Amino acid sequence: MREHIATLESLGATAFPVKTLAELEMADGLVIPGGESTTISKLLVNFGLMDAVRKFAEHKPVLGTCAGLILLSNRVEGALADQQLIGGLPVAVERNAYGGQTHSFEAEVVIAGEAERVAFIRAPRILDAGDAEVIAELNGEPVAIKAGNLMGASFHPEISGGKRLHRVFLELIEKMQAG
User: Fold this and answer.
1) How do the domains of the chain map onto residue ranges?
2) How, if at all, do strands 89-94 and 125-128 pair?
3) Whose CA is closest to 33, among 25, 45, 43?
4) CA 41 to chain centre
5) Average pLDDT, stretch 24-30?
6) Taking the alpha carbons of 104, 128, 111, 57 in that order, is the dihedral positive or negative?
7) The overall pTM is greater than 0.90
8) CA 89: distance to chain centroid?
9) Are 91 and 145 contacting, i.e. CB atoms less than 8 angstroms apart?
10) Strand extents, DSSP E, 21-96
11) Which amino acids are annotated catalytic?
């Protein structure tokens, strides 16, 4: 999460970690980072934030990278039976579809018209982009999408120093604030 905060701040945004309902209520947008989607889901439930994050995602911009993409997706292959999803993205994804930790790699993708090197670490694959807008592809497959106020990416732009996805996210926040 630190890397996402640093990237957003380098682009002129005020960014902070969200761990409480009060912090969530202060946010104009939310980044759900990579990590382990089942663990993030359980933490959201255990800290009483799952419903609040779901409501937030109905109206405010949310960017999910890697595990965050999984949590924002409406359909997930390989999800554990007790894993709760935030949902909202009209996509189907498969957990760890690019392989395990030892199969991690970096690749250049074009994100909304700009090429950038990003990291794929135990990355989910977007199996069906539904009616979401594809904003980045790798080898002809969607790896970043946008649907309304929600964005998701299979990769970690923050690890390789990428800023384009975060710029698109900040533009979405500004657009939604302008009405």
Assistant:
1) 2-178
2) antiparallel
3) 43
4) 14
5) 98
6) negative
7) yes
8) 10
9) yes
10) 30-32, 62-65, 73-77, 89-94
11) 66, 156, 158
Q: How many CA atoms lie within 13 A of 153 on its CB side?
A: 29
What is the number of H-type helices and E-type strands within the chain?
6, 10
pLDDT digits (tens, 9 = 90+) for 63-113: 999 999 999 999 999 988 889 999 999 999 999 888 777 779 999 999 989
Domain 2-178, architecture per CATH:
3-Layer(aba) Sandwich (3.40)
151 by Cβ neighbours in 10 Å (0-12 / 13-18 / 19+) ranks as buried
Read off the amino acid at residue 130. Answer: G
Tokens of 32: 């759900």
DSSP string, 52-70: HHHHHHHHS-EEEETHHHH
Tokens standing for residue 145: 């999408």
